[in-house]
Structure formats: structure tokens, C-alpha cells
Amino acid sequence: MTFQLRNVPLLSRVGADRADALRTDIDAATAGWADALLLRVDRRNQVLISGGQVVLGKAAKLGDKPPEHAVFLGRLNDGRHVWAVRSALEGPDDPHAETEVLDLRRGGQIFDDVSAQLVATATSLLNWHDSARFSALDGAPTKPVKAGWSRINPLNGHEEFPRIDPAVICLVHDGHDRAVLARQTVWPERLFSLLAGFVEAGESFESCVVREVAEEIGLTVTDVRYLGSQPWPFPRSLMVGFHAVGDPQQEFSFNDGEIAEAAWFTRAEIRQALEAGDWSSDSSSRLLLPGSISIAREIIESWAALDN
User: Of 142, 222, 252, 261, which residue is least crowded by CB atoms under 10 Å?
Assistant: First the structure.
């Protein structure tokens, strides 16, 4: 069986130019600061949203040049630069605008493309800066450079870049109309999703899929196929999606203690669960599934939409 994702995962959307060349062009970055926009992200990774768009303030309120702790996110279609800082949230310039405080987990599905990209990038970068203030080599304090896209040790010149932790997420199916869904031990009853795990050192994505499925539910999978990827800045992951074939006759065994239960579900059962909403709903369905912000939802929906 082969299938593709029907839609771009919500946090993989592109709505602005990352304009990476500007990260090292200090003159250009400074020249654009006067008209630049500013995204504020608070300590809980929340932002202010109005009408599905993230609220962007005037960067110049912070001074006549980008402060050291600001990170450059890119350039909008109208040419304006966008920066982000970790700070308390501030209301929009329009005092009559209706706003709400949301993070990516709770509000990512209502963000427009530009907002999704800006908030995902800002969250990832700012989370990394929060945990990378000291050198991994000698413990010396580091300082941000390249518009927040790296940190440097001023004592020895060693440069460190934003860390990304890759993880695989896989839909295991039987090649026909059944798929495995599992529930983690920390999840409430009836909440099921795909199998996932972090890639180990010296391991390929495909090998990680085989290992993680075997560790978590004891199945041997074959025909591992790539589907797509999505940034997951909680705090700094990249989810890489796959599907693989498993044998429904093989017994489950929960070897690493992360999975409480797993089961094979028919495509009809999964379609019914998708119609019931997601695991935030008050549905009485036997099966509740992840929300649309996760690539897991897109993978499940794409598989459930197949005819065979």
C-alpha cells in the first residue's frame, strides 16, 4: 500500500521568507529595524492572537537597533522584517481588536500560514536560547550572534547552532484496512495515537521506526515508507512521519513501559472516530484521536481517506 499526506501538516506551512542571508548582514538588519514587526512570546510559549493572526507590534519600541536577545524570523511579503523576543505579551495597537492568548498546541489550527511559521520558528529558537546560555565545552557564558541563529563562546570562538531533536512517528497498518493505534500510560482512557520515538545516535529514520515499534508494542514492521515532516517546538523536535506494514497475527508486547495498550482498528472505526472530533471533545466514542495540530492527525486522516 502507498499513500501520501493529503495536506501540509499545520506547523509545516510556509507563509514568510526566512531571508537567511539577512542573519549575517548586520547593516541590512539594522536598516530594516525601523519598520520591523515584533512577535512577543511569553515564558509559557504563548502569543497574542487576533482573528487567526498573531499580533505583531512595532520593533522600534525596543530601541533604535535589534537588542541582543532578539531573534530574526524572516521577511513578510511586503518586505518588512519580523523579529521575536521572550517577554510579557502586549496588546495590539488597535484597542478595539479582540484578542486571545494561545500557544501552538491549543491554537495552532486557527493560525494562518504566516502566523504558524512565525510562532513555530520563534518558539523553537527562544526555547533553545533558554537552555543554551553556557558552552557545552567549558561552561563559559555564550552570547547570541547571527540575529539569534547561533551562540558563540567569546573565550574560544566556538559556535553552537539551534539544536533539533529528530523523532519518527509511524502509522503501522496491515496493507489493507486495519491500522494499529496505541495509548501511552500517561494518557486518559480511550485516547489513542500513532507510535513515535526519538532517533538515536548512529541510527537512520527507517531503522528507528523498526526499533521503536518493536520496543513499544513488540511488532516487527517492514516496508517503511516516508510521508512527511513537521516541526514540533516542544521544546525543539522535528517529527518525521512514516507508514509501515505489520502483521495482525503477531501478538503485542509492551517492552519499554511507555504504552498501556494497543489495538488494531478498521478503517471504518477510524473514520467514525475522526468524525467525532479529537481527544479534546466530549464524545463518547470508544476511540479518541489527536488534534489537527499534530502530524499524527494528518497521517491518520490521509490513511482513512483511502478506498481500499
Answer: 222
Of the candidates 114, 132, 63, 108, the residue with the CA atom closest to the CA atom of residue 232: 108
Q: pTM above 0.85?
A: yes
Cis peptide before 235 (omega within 30 of 0): yes
Q: How many beta carbons lie within 10 A of that of residue 266, not counting itself?
A: 12
Q: What is the DSSP string of 60-88?
A: GGG-SS--TT-EEEEE-TTS-EEEEEE--
Grid look-up 498573531 returns: 54
Instruction: Summarize pLDDT for 91-121 with one digit per residue, the tens.
Output: 888 888 899 999 888 887 889 999 999 999 9
Q: How many alpha carbons fall within 13 Å on the CB side of residue 146?
A: 13
Tally of CA atoms within 13 A in the half-sphere of 250 that contains its CB = 17
Written as nine digits, the cell of 240 is 518525521
Distance CA 65, CA 125 (A): 20
Chain centroid offset of residue 220 CA: 28
Task: Please state, as a whole number, how many other Cβ atoms lie within 10 Å of the Cβ of residue 235.
Answer: 15
Closest CA to 300 of 271, 279, 277: 271
Under DSSP, the state recorded for 171 is: E
Please write the tens of the pLDDT for every residue from 15-47.
Answer: 999 999 999 998 898 889 999 999 999 999 999
pLDDT digits (tens, 9 = 90+) for 202-229: 999 999 999 999 999 999 999 999 999 9
| 3-state secondary structure string across 100-118 | EEECHHHHHHHCCHHHHHH
Q: Could you tell me the end-to-end alpha-carbon distance of the chain, in angstroms, rounded to an integer?
A: 9
Distance CA 153, CA 290 (A): 41
C-alpha distances in Å from residue 37, one per residue of 56, 103, 136, 301: 6, 19, 33, 36
Q: Which of 82, 115, 96, 159 is nearest to 11 (CA)?
A: 115
